[in-house]
Design goal:
The chain is mainly α. The protein is about 80% helix and about 0% strand. The chain has two domains: about 1-200, Four Helix Bundle (Hemerythrin (Met), subunit A), CATH 1.20.120; about 220-245 and about 250-260.
Length: about 260
Amino acid sequence: MKFLTWIKVIIFLLCLIPLGHLGWGAFTNNLGANPIEVITRSTGKWTLMFLLITLSVSPLRKITRLQWLIKFRRMLGLFAFFYICLHFTTYIWLDQFFDIMAIGKDVIKRPFITVGFSSFVLLIPLALTSTRGMIKRLGGRRWQQLHRLIYLSAIGGVVHFLWLVKADLQRPLIYGAVLMLLLGFRIAVWARLTQVVKFFSKHRPTDLRRWLWGPARRRSPEHLSPHSRLLGRGQARAENSVVRDKGSSVPSRSTMSRIRS
């Protein structure tokens, strides 16, 4: 467990690198001619990247069968929420100076801000219910249904980025392709589980074993243990003696003693 603790600490520090880079750039006055735009773009980019990293934890866990990867998913998701809060704060504070009327007009008139604001709102209940206590209160099934909102938030983030840049579409298209790959993997897993459930509900357990592992095969003698070979020879000799005794339907005493032994 100490190994996982150290990995958590390392991942936590790595997740703070984008914030440290922005803080150092602001301290050294090295954010360019428009620092507000640099901060807004950077926090928005890292929000989307952390959303994709969070969504990639479950597929990696199933492919690699490393169950301990799931322990980092909540922390990565909270870092996505942290950076989207910085992104939103930069917009309402440094860009709009808390002008509620101007912010309301932007949300209504500019579609990419509308989609981005909706994605931010969708992440709020996920962050509030990320604790173990809230999982117990909501129940596992309701909690999972609620946290599927991250799919809509990620889709909204990609659309927000796509409508924002307009000209250079390479990076948002890459993010969109990664998101489609992650969602496609989940759809494939869900379809496979649906087939298994339908098959199990219609067939007997023996049929399910044949469908999963194929028909049963008799093992060759060379794969059997010496003890199993001796038992098999004794059973074969007993059966042969029964067949030879054609005059009577009852096996002889010698045959019965061999079968019992």
